[in-house]
Write a structure and sequence with these properties.
272 residues; seven-stranded mixed sheet; single chain; two-stranded antiparallel sheet; 9 helices; alpha+beta
Length: 272
C-alpha cells in the first residue's frame, strides 16, 4: 500500500509526540546551556565571554573566595573553657580603608547594572538585581535615598560580612549585634533628591550600579531576645572595632573596596 494511503490514527500522533519528547530530553541533557536565556548563564560563563581584563580576573578570584564553605567558629577550647579572642581593631580607619569613590567607580561600572532612572525601573530589573531585606545578620535602616536592591555578588558580600561579624562577636564574648545597612542602590532620581539636601553627595556614585552599600560603624542593632524578636539600636564602640577587623580581612583578600566615611558615619563598600 502506498504511504500516502496509510490511514493516520491517534496512536500514530502519540508515538510521534513521545519520540520527539525523548529526543529533546536527550539533547537537553547533552547541551543544557541551549535551554538557557542569555541573562541566565552563570557569571563565570559571562565573564569568559567578556574581555579578560584585570577586573574580570579579580571577580573570578572573589567568586571562589565567597563561595567557599563557611568555617564554624570555635567557641570552646579542648579543656571546655570558652574561647575569648582579643579585639584588636585596625591601626587606623583612614589608612586601612582609603578607597575613594573614584577608585571604586571603575569596578562598579564594570560589574554592576546600567544606570536606572527610577525605583520602578529598579524593581523591574529582577534578572540583574536581587532584593535585599532584613536578615538574621543585618537590618536595613530607613532608606530615604536608595532602594533595597543589589547585584548578586554584592548581596553575597554583604551576607558574608554580616555573618563573619556575628561569628567574631561571639568568639570575642560580646552580645549579638546586627549590622545596620544605611544605603544600597541609588537610582538617578535618588541621586538628584540626595544632592538637594547634601551638595557633597557624588553625582556619579558607585551606588548607582548596585555593587555598593554602606554599613553604619557607630550604630548597631542589639538583639535582646531573638525568640521574641526584641532588639534596640545602640551606640557602642566595640562592634566598630570588630567590623573593622572583618572588613580589613576581606579588603586585603581582594574581595571589596572600603572607604571610611567619617562625616556619614559609615563604611562605603563596593564588591569586586
Amino acid at each position: 500500500m502506498p504511504l500516502h494511503k496509510i490511514p493516520l490514527r491517534r496512536s500514530h500522533f502519540l508515538v510521534a509526540f513521545a519520540v520527539t519528547v525523548i529526543v529533546l530530553v536527550i539533547v537537553k541533557c547533552q547541551h543544557p546551556e541551549w535551554s538557557l536565556r542569555p541573562e541566565a548563564v552563570q557569571p563565570e560563563a559571562r565573564a569568559q565571554a567578556e574581555p579578560d581584563d584585570s577586573i574580570i580576573r579579580q571577580a573570578r578570584h572573589v567568586d571562589s573566595l565567597l563561595l567557599r564553605r563557611r568555617s564554624v567558629p570555635v567557641l570552646v577550647k579542648a579543656d571546655g573553657t570558652p574561647v575569648k579572642n582579643r579585639l584588636t581593631s585596625v591601626v587606623s580607619f583612614d589608612v586601612s580603608f582609603p578607597d575613594l569613590n573614584d577608585v571604586q567607580l571603575t569596578t562598579a561600572q564594570r560589574l554592576g547594572v546600567p544606570l536606572m532612572a527610577s525605583r520602578a525601573e529598579a524593581a523591574q530589573g529582577k534578572d540583574k538585581l536581587v532584593y535585599v531585606g532584613d536578615s538574621p545578620h543585618y537590618a536595613l535602616m530607613s532608606l530615604k535615598h536608595s532602594a533595597p536592591y543589589l547585584v548578586p555578588r554584592a548581596a553575597t558580600l554583604l551576607n558574608t560580612i554580616a555573618r563573619a561579624f556575628n561569628d567574631s562577636c561571639v568568639t570575642k564574648g560580646y552580645p549579638f549585634y546586627k549590622l545596620l545597612v544605611t544605603s544600597v542602590l541609588r537610582t538617578q532620581e535618588d541621586v538628584q533628591h540626595l544632592r538637594r539636601v547634601n551638595q557633597n553627595a557624588s553625582e556619579n556614585s558607585c551606588h548607582q550600579y548596585g555593587t555598593t552599600f554602606d554599613i553604619s560603624y557607630n550604630k548597631f542593632l542589639l538583639v535582646t531576645d531573638p525568640d521574641k524578636g526584641r532588639s534596640e539600636i545602640v551606640y557602642v564602640t566595640p562592634p566598630k572595632g570588630i567590623l573593622s577587623e572583618v572588613l580589613e580581612d576581606l579588603r586585603l583578600a581582594g574581595a571589596c573596596y572600603v572607604k571610611f566615611e567619617k562625616k556619614q558615619s559609615c563604611f562605603h563598600i563596593t564588591a569586586r
